[in-house]
Write a structure and sequence with these properties.
368 residues; single chain; 38% helix; 5-stranded mixed sheet
């Protein structure tokens, strides 16, 4: 860790636990560690004098930009002699806590925790600086119990966490079907069972849930257990695009070390470019990093369908984040937020221009 950036311990978890948009932490995440497999080019220099840049992500295929960027050594390449260090997380709140405390500098994260972290700090904790992925979320059900969308009424449907991105999406969809559900307890015309993605497949096998609205690869794991995809969330969005993963940064780190942030964004853009040009090799690379992180590879019957349902993009799809926030408000999980300033796409657009790519829009939610 850089001596120039001592860690500050903030007791934010207790604060997060009281937020209207509650996202229950499922473990703080692994300790930051260097990527010893990535080689530093001879003669490379430190960026902004930093010993390290600490990057957080989930062990999830919707975070494949980070998985592939790490496995291919792209972050280390762009950071030069500044070490890329990594921490993996199971849940949004723990990653937000780590960002707030200075344990990580930059992270890949879903839209709901990003909105939550920004609004509950009164717009002072983070910025969204780039996009990463769209799609990869499905409603998978037991075909013996649920044969059509109208059969969801009266059933038990799992979502990952109270107030998380998929929980909000399911509550919004259910409301549009005319179902009444208490957002906090999950009780109503449909019973919402908040279940960690790691145990959702076992809950499905045991019969304690009838289906789940979940991201990949959990959705494809359920299908491998005999589940059926009843609805792909992408079909509910214009052009079938909606943000599932963003890149966030601590505002303090962004202000103090813009060159380091730009280097990480360049690596992210290169990672997405390589993923889209080499989908099979990228799928293998992502699975290899998942194996290194968790000790277990995804089998082909899970990996292949999961990968094909996710699209990777540098565009943060800002207008869909605004819509997702509106869904949370409608569900009763969030007071109408002021999201002005949540985006700062200046450095991303600089990188995209240099790469000859089209710049992206913040939907009027940018700084300035």
């Amino acid at each position: 860790m850089s001596a120039a950036r001592p860690l500050t311990t903030l007791r934010t978890l207790a604060v997060i636990a009281t937020l209207p948009l509650l996202l229950t932490a499922c473990g703080y995440g692994s300790k930051a560690k260097s990527d010893d497999t990535a080689k530093v080019a001879a003669g490379a220099k430190k960026i902004d004098g930093l010993d390290s840049v600490r990057i957080g992500y989930f062990g999830n295929l919707t975070h494949a930009t980070a998985l592939v960027g790490r496995e291919q050594g792209l972050f280390q390449k762009e950071l030069g002699a500044t070490k890329a260090e990594y921490a993996t997380f199971n849940a949004g709140p723990s990653e937000i806590e780590a960002l707030n405390s200075g344990s990580i500098d930059i992270g890949w994260i879903g839209p709901s925790p990003a909105i939550n972290g920004y609004t509950k700090s009164n717009g002072k904790s983070l910025r969204i600086i780039g996009g990463s992925a769209s799609g990869g979320v499905k409603l998978v059900v037991n075909p013996k119990k649920i044969k059509s969308l109208k059969d969801v009424k009266g059933k038990k449907i799992a979502t990952p966490q109270l107030g998380n991105t998929q929980d909000v999406a399911f509550l919004n969809w259910a409301a549009e079907q005319g179902y009444k559900i208490d957002p906090q307890s999950g009780k109503g015309d449909v019973t919402v069972v908040r279940t960690d993605n790691k145990i959702t497949p076992d809950a499905y096998k045991s019969g304690s849930i009838d289906g789940a609205w979940v991201p990949e690869p959990t959705a494809s794991k359920l299908v491998a257990e005999g589940g059926k995809v009843l609805l792909d969330e992408s079909t509910l969005w214009p052009d079938k695009k909606f943000v599932i993963t963003n890149i966030i940064v601590s505002q303090k780190f962004l202000k103090a070390h813009p060159k380091a942030v730009e280097a990480v964004l360049k690596a992210s853009v290169e990672s997405n470019k390589w993923i889209n040009a080499n989908p099979d090799a990228a799928k293998t690379a992502a699975n290899k990093q998942l194996t290194a992180d968790s000790g277990k590879a995804l089998p082909a019957n899970v990996l292949d369908p999961a990968w094909s349902s996710i699209s990777f993009t540098d565009d943060p799809l800002a207008s869909t984040l605004n819509t997702e926030a509106a869904h949370a408000v409608k569900a009763g999980l969030l007071t109408k937020p002021d999201l002005k300033g949540i985006y700062d796409l200046t450095l991303l657009n600089k990188v995209l221009k240099a790469e000859g790519e089209s710049t992206v829009d913040d939907a009027g939610l940018g700084v300035g």
